[in-house]
Design goal:
By secondary structure, the chain is an alpha+beta fold. It contains 7 helices and 13 strands. It has a single domain, classed as Metallo-beta-lactamase, Chain A. 26% of the residues lie in helices and 27% in strands. Strands 6-7-8-9-12-13 form a 6-stranded mixed sheet. The protein has a 5-stranded mixed sheet with strand order 1-2-3-4-5, with helices on one face. The longest helix is centred in the last third of the chain and has 12 residues. The radius of gyration is 16 Å and the shape is globular. The relative contact order is 0.15.
């Protein structure tokens, strides 16, 4: 699987385009804003977007979803239904954080742990990883050794847990039970900041040293 990213929103969020090289079909992950930048990324990749995938419901990951669904005419897949309260209040969150107006939406498919998402000839495994938010999921390309991590794990850090309904215990358990067993050779695209690998974080991330 191929991928491209562009940084969007005042929160410097990584919006990712996952690409099937065989079919040139793609999935757009976490379009949080700056639609012109996202549109440019899609156009330059010469792909057909087949779905919008969401790791979780925080405003910097979903603020542009409703508008892009209308523009692209594709289904919204994810996150887990426990983040529905965030999605339904995205307009309020956008106003509070100085984002352009955003609209709530209803995903076409909520995701559960153990499900799979397919586009083109690509398959992504879904892992429910609560802690940063209750309904957070990650997308794993087992063959390509790639994780779209959202805000679970970062280079040198982990997702915030001081937001409403966050839980440090739940987040660390998600990392221990679901992320680390995927293997040290897994590269990941975090929701913010530079890419890393599971092995690099297992070795050097201070939050992971006692897991």
């Amino acid at each position: 699987m191929e991928f491209r990213t562009t940084v969007v929103t005042p929160f410097v969020q990584n919006c990712t385009l996952l690409i099937c090289p065989q079919t040139k079909e793609a999935a757009l992950v976490d379009p949080g804003g700056d639609i012109d930048k996202i549109r440019s990324m899609i156009d330059s990749a010469h792909v057909t977007v087949k779905a919008i995938l969401l790791t979780h419901g925080h405003v910097d990951h979903v603020a542009a979803v409703a508008d892009l669904k209308e523009e692209l005419d594709v289904p919204i897949i994810g996150p887990h239904k426990d983040d529905n309260y965030l999605i339904q209040n995205v307009g309020e969150y956008a106003a509070n954080f100085g984002f352009p107006p955003a609209h709530s939406f209803v995903p076409d498919r909520w995701l559960m742990h153990g499900e799979r998402v397919q586009f083109g000839e690509q398959t992504l495994d879904v892992y429910h990883c609560p802690g940063h938010s209750p309904g957070h999921v990650i997308f794993v390309d087992q063959k390509g050794k790639l994780i779209v991590m959202g805000d679970v794990l970062f280079r040198g850090s982990i997702g915030r847990t001081d937001l409403p309904n966050g839980s440090m215990d739940a987040l660390l358990n998600s990392i221990k039970e679901h992320v680390l067993p995927l293997g040290d050779d897994m590269q990941f695209i975090p929701g913010h900041g530079r890419f890393s690998t599971v092995g690099e974080e297992r070795k050097n991330n201070p939050f992971l040293q006692h897991l």
